[in-house]
Design brief:
By secondary structure, the protein is of the alpha+beta class. The protein has a single domain, classed as Pnp Oxidase, Chain A. It is built from 3 helices and 11 strands.
Length: about 180
């Protein structure tokens, strides 16, 4: 792993990747007042057909060392990822702002989809695995997700950049 201290010229130590991933392991609730600047909205950036970035808010999970999200197959983000799997995600926590770069892949393994459904349901979104066993359904979702079924995606994170938002400060990039 390559570690780049982006705040060395301020004589600040590199941030601790274990602390960053431990914070991610604790969850990123979407409930107002639960963290970040009032809550944790994760922003997904995909690459459009013309090469332009497309940014949209998503509800994401950090599990099994990766970022997971869901969306309908007709959404712009799903169409972009079908053509170009590269993406970036950004989230603000109390202690740091974080950007993760990687590649997204649709997950159709019934066991993995069921694990994510259970985690989303435990977090307050009452989704469930649909009759195919490979997608999700629920009585509601974010309007930007389109109608069900919703496909589950796993983002293999290739790099992370964190900027501390609390003292003593710091900024670090990890190429994983």
């Amino acid at each position: 792993m390559d570690v780049t201290n982006l705040a060395a010229h301020y004589d600040l130590a590199p941030l601790d990747l274990d602390a960053v991933t431990a914070r991610l392991d604790a969850g990123l609730s979407q409930a107002p007042g639960s963290g970040g600047p009032d809550r944790h909205t994760c922003w997904l950036t995909t690459v459009g057909a013309d090469g332009a970035p497309h940014v949209t808010g998503i509800g994401a999970l950090w599990a099994e060392g990766a970022v997971w999200f869901e969306t309908g197959p007709a959404t712009r983000k799903a169409r972009n990822l079908a053509r170009d799997a590269r993406c970036a995600l950004a989230v603000a926590t109390h202690d740091f702002d974080l950007v993760m770069d990687g590649t997204a892949a649709r997950v159709s393994d019934p066991e993995a989809v069921a694990r994510r459904a259970a985690e989303w349901a435990a977090g307050g979104w009452p989704c469930r695995v649909d009759e195919t066993g490979t997608s999700l359904t629920a009585d509601f979702s974010a309007p930007s997700a389109g109608p069900p079924p919703w496909h589950v995606y796993r983002v293999e994170v290739r790099s992370m950049t964190a900027v501390a938002t609390v003292e003593p400060g710091g900024a670090t990039r990890w190429a994983l």
